[in-house]
Design brief:
Largest sheet: 7 strands, mixed
CATH class of the domain at 4-44 and 56-85 and 173-275: Alpha Beta
Order of helices and strands: EEHHHHHHEEEHEEH
Oligomer: single chain
Number of strands: 7
Helix content: 25-40%
Bound molecules: iron/sulfur cluster
Radius of gyration: 20 Å
Structural class: alpha/beta
Strand content: 5-15%
CATH architecture of the domain at 4-44 and 56-85 and 173-275: Alpha-Beta Complex
Shape: globular
Number of helices: 8
């Protein structure tokens, strides 16, 4: 079992025997807890810009992104999951969504045609689709009438797509699944869910879970935080398929690194215990309405400073029924 940050060649990043085969597969989830202010901690797919009013409900499941939110700041979790406060799209998150769509769609082409020029040629159509499905992303370029910033932004997306080809060779890959939604209910009743960017299954049956990041790889001391999301997915796949994924692979397009980890059952059991403890804390906060702010340097990326007590704001009225703290489950 090892953790490594590689400037990997396709061979270095592969599951034994290299991935192939369209094996019917699992179903899965999403993103990252924080610890340092780096681009990889910026959520890559932004929370939808949901117009009010929104019906508040107690959380019923956990994804890696939301688990990361709670670990970063419980009040942020409340704003996102319970109040569902709208958030502005960000350039980094929107570019991440665009690049993910391009990498996913490229596998529609025959293996030999999965070239960098072809991938880059998909960007305009995928950008059109993104604007149609999420018109709010155009707010990003509202003050850019000449389109100069948009052109730079699209060039950066091209650069990220191009870099992927130095890290993996899509002509040698035949993903079993792309953008796979997965959901598993644990014995405790907790439901885990998320979306896995890519699942490769080798002829031997070994499973590799792959996630693309458009930010930079974390420094080694923060690698554990980055791997949390991947272990979360591995736990879901294990619970669904009774197969422990052979390899977890994070592909950092921003820095050209590949971070891999080969999990063991003990890792997944530890993640499950951690998630159960986290869920207990979330349930307690949901029932009592006690959501503490936890200010860190990541507050600089938070859209909710105006309603955060740490910044002189007042949260909206808590929309769920509450019980007194410490009075037991209600
Ligand atoms: S500003 Fe900081 S402390 Fe306040 S809700 Fe956002 S992340 Fe939490």
């Amino acid at each position: 079992m090892e953790t490594s940050t590689e400037g990997a060649s396709p061979e270095e990043g592969a599951v034994a025997g290299e991935a192939v085969a369209g094996v019917p597969a699992p179903a899965t989830g999403e993103s990252v807890p924080g610890g340092t202010v780096t681009e990889q901690n910026v959520p890559e797919r932004s929370v939808p810009h949901v117009p009010a009013p929104v019906v508040a409900r107690a959380p019923a499941s956990l994804s890696p992104s939301r688990a990361g939110d709670f670990m970063q700041c419980p009040l942020l979790y409340r704003f996102r999951v319970i109040d569902k406060l709208p958030e502005k799209p960000s350039e980094a998150a929107t570019r991440g969504t665009l690049v993910h769509a391009v990498l996913e769609r490229l596998f529609d082409a025959p293996a030999a045609d999965r070239t960098a020029p072809r991938a880059k040629s998909l960007i305009p159509a995928q950008w059109d689709r993104l604007r149609e499905s999420k018109p709010e992303v155009m707010e990003l370029f509202a003050d850019d009438p000449e389109g100069e910033r948009l052109a730079r932004w699209l060039s950066e997306a091209e650069r990220l797509v191009e870099r992927w080809f130095t890290l993996e060779d899509p002509t040698r890959l035949e993903p079993a699944e792309r953008e796979l939604f997965v959901e598993a209910r644990l014995d405790s009743g907790l439901t885990l869910r998320g979306i896995i960017d890519r699942v490769d299954v080798a002829p031997t049956g070994e499973v590799r879970i792959v996630d693309y990041k458009t930010g930079k790889a974390p420094r080694p001391e923060y690698a554990e935080g980055a791997l949390f999301q991947m272990k979360f997915y591995a736990l879901v796949v294990w619970r669904l398929k009774r197969v422990v994924p052979r390899r977890l692979q994070l592909v950092y397009l921003g820095s050209g690194d590949v971070l891999t980890y080969d999990p063991e059952i003990g890792d997944l059991e530890r993640v499950e215990r951690k998630l159960l403890a986290l869920w207990d804390a979330i349930s307690e906060a949901t029932e009592t309405g006690e959501w503490r702010p936890r200010p860190t340097k990541l507050c600089g990326w938070c859209d909710h400073q105006a309603v955060c007590p740490e910044f002189g704001g007042t949260p909206p009225a808590y929309p769920l029924p509450v019980r007194a703290p410490g009075s037991g489950a209600g």
